[in-house]
């Protein structure tokens, strides 16, 4: 954080202790502060913090979202969830999906960043195109890829016939649906990881490479011993942001598989939506929201801890 | 060395093709007539151009409504969000208040709450307010600004203090100082925050889906889902044309302002 900013004028306590004018000015400033931040804080409290509390409460009820009575059922919803095979499947699917999207986009992103960091002609254009899908509507991207995955008329058939086989029916085959969704999110998200890594590479201190070269270390050793460790804050930033992002993945799934076939692409975010807005069970929807919140909070806190420790040992 | 260079260029080209391919496929399919869509081998460059895909898509669902709704909710939502960001950032940079630090933590903590966790309670709040299927129902839950306020504050902290003091000595009040001194000097960061907000709201899908329930109140991305459910995946030309409706405005903004979008979205990663 930068500290070279504007220091607020010192509160005049010494010279004229609490003269009427100074005190009134300070009061006015306090009121102004409140007026400036009140709307924002109102929205934040009502639409960000309150929902967590309210979800926690709903998760302890059996409310059907219609009846005026919310029966308190204790931890039943959590017990039901964690003893049902269905929810275990959802968690497993979420893990596959998250590892696929987060791991894949970071590995590919790092590779792409290394490539784009070389002085190659046309790299500016490719950099732009790599990042472009990231800003596109997931709904539209889902539609485009649904067509690409069409086994008869999509690009998928072109690809598979080139290697001499028929295209799988990606979106309707339960073995292929999850990989299909992962591929779409990789296409959409890898550019973000690539650009962040690229920024990290371009911020590398030059002298590190000079001394590595003086030590006579080859490219691979330099990469492993200097580049990767120096990029680790970037890596951890990406782990957290991409994990949070992939836990909320929804639009592409809605436009391609709708959580199916069966429950092949029912990840946690789809489960929250499905139990709340299609089955009208506030209890399970609240409980699964709280589980999601808990997982993401844990990851964020672990990352903060880890980064602090790293800085400490330096 | 030569071989390495060649390999690097080969990789660059493959990468470019993978990234551009789907977008080209979208554009070209949206222009093809059925004889060129449902055929094998695929037609790469459409010759029987069929602009009617666009009018078919436009008429297959109330896309005019979707457009208007998307424009209204995006711009109104972003305007309020940016106003919140500016006022909050100014207050936290230039105004004194007891307990400011704690409040700042409360502000940033909001970023830890994933949007998906807020869906059901926010739906209930909005329905309690009688805002289901209204513009304010779509807009208001998304107008708080934590990250934008944070970015702007980081920027305001770097502004030369002498200038702000000079304005104050000249008798400018805080509103005046903010409007005529601080905001003009924060222009690049304002553009960044603004564009990231606009793009986010334009693409927002799940909240408008949940909070609206008639076709005439849907936004564009939700309209795509309606179109898909209604047409299935049968009329690919028209479906791709509809996807173009959503994608083209953002792509135009992206190519014009990509520097700002990239800073906005990657800020905090490298310098922390």
Question: What this model shows, in words?
Answer:
The complex is a heterodimer of chains A (314) and B (272). Chain A is an all-alpha fold and 314 residues long. Chain A has helices at residues 20-58, 76-83, 85-116, 123-131, 138-148, 155-162, 177-202, 206-214, 219-247, 251-256, 268-278, 282-313. In chain A, α1 packs across α12 (282-313) and α3 runs parallel beside α7. The relative contact order of chain A is 0.12. Chain B is mostly helical and 272 residues long. Chain B is globular, with a radius of gyration of 23 Å. The model of chain B has no long low-confidence stretch (mean pLDDT 91). The chains are: A mainly alpha (314), B mainly alpha (272). The interface between A and B is large, with 103 and 108 residues.
Give the biggest beta sheet of chain B: none
Structural category of chain A is: mainly alpha
- How many distinct beta strands of chain A? 0
As a whole number of angstroms, the C-alpha radius of gyration of chain B is: 23 Å
Query: What Rg of chain A do the Cα atoms give?
Result: 26 Å
Greatest chain-chain interface? Answer: A-B, 103 and 108 residues
Summarize the main sheet of chain A.
Answer: none
H/E element order of chain A = HHHHHHHHHHHH
Give the percentage of residues in beta strands of chain B. under 5%
Unreliable stretches covering 5 or more consecutive residues of chain B: none
Helix content of chain B: over 70%
Structural class of chain B: mainly alpha
Q: Total number of β-strand segments of chain B?
A: 0
């Amino acid at each position: 954080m930068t500290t070279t900013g504007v220091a607020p004028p010192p509160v005049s306590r010494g010279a004229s202790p609490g003269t009427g004018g100074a005190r009134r000015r300070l009061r006015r400033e306090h009121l102004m502060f409140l007026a400036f931040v009140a709307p924002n804080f109102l929205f934040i409290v009502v639409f960000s913090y309150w929902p967590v509390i309210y979800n926690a409460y709903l998760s302890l009820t059996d409310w059907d979202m219609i009846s005026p009575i919310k029966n308190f059922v204790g931890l039943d919803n959590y017990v039901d969830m964690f003893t049902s095979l269905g929810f275990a499947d959802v968690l497993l699917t979420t893990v596959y999906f998250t590892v696929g999207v987060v791991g894949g986009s970071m590995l590919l992103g790092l590779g792409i960043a290394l490539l784009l960091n070389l002085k190659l002609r046309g790299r500016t254009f490719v950099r732009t195109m790599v990042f472009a899908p990231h800003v596109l509507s997931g709904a539209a991207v889902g539609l485009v890829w649904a067509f690409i995955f069409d086994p008869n008329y999509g690009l998928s058939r072109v690809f598979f016939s080139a290697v001499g086989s028929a295209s799988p029916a990606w979106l309707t085959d339960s073995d292929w649906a999850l990989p299909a969704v992962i591929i779409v999110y990789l296409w959409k998200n890898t550019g973000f990881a690539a650009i962040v890594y690229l920024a990290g590479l371009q911020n590398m201190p030059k002298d590190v490479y000079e001394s590595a070269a003086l030590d006579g270390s080859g490219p691979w050793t330099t990469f492993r011993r200097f580049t990767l460790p120096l990029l680790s804050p970037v890596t951890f930033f990406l782990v957290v942001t991409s994990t949070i992002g992939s836990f909320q993945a929804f639009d592409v799934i809605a436009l391609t598989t709708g959580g199916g076939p069966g429950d092949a692409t029912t990840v946690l975010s789809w489960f929250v939506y499905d139990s709340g807005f299609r089955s009208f069970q506030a209890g399970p929807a609240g409980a699964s929201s709280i589980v999601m919140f808990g997982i993401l909070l844990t990851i964020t806190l672990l990352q903060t801890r880890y980064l602090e420790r790293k800085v400490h040992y330096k | 060395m030569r071989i390495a260079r060649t390999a690097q260029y080969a990789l660059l080209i493959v990468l470019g093709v993978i990234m551009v391919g789907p977008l080209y496929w979208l554009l070209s399919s949206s222009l093809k007539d059925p004889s060129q869509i449902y055929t094998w081998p695929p037609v790469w460059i459409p010759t029987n151009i069929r602009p009617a895909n666009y009018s078919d898509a436009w008429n297959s669902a109330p896309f005019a409504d979707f457009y208007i709704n998307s424009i209204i909710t995006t711009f109104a939502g972003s305007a309020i969000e940016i106003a919140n960001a500016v006022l909050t950032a100014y207050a936290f940079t230039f105004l004194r208040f007891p307990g400011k630090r704690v409040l700042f933590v409360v502000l940033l903590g909001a970023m830890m709450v994933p949007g998906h966790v807020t869906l059901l309670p926010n739906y209930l709040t909005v329905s309690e307010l009688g805002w289901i299927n209204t513009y304010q129902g779509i807009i208001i839950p998304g107008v708080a600004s934590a990250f934008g306020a944070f970015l702007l504050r980081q920027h305001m902290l770097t502004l030369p203090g002498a200038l702000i003091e000079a304005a104050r000595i000249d008798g400018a009040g805080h509103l005046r100082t903010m409007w005529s001194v601080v905001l003009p000097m924060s222009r690049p960061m304002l553009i960044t925050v603004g564009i990231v907000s606009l793009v986010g709201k334009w693409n927002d899908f799940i909240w408008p889906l949940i909070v609206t329930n008639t076709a005439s109140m849907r936004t564009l991305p939700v309209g795509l889902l309606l179109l898909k459910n209604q047409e299935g995946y049968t009329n690919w030309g028209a479906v791709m044309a509809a996807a173009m409706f959503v994608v083209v405005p953002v792509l135009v903004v992206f190519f014009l302002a990509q520097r700002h979008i990239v800073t906005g979205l990657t800020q905090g990663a490298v310098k922390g």
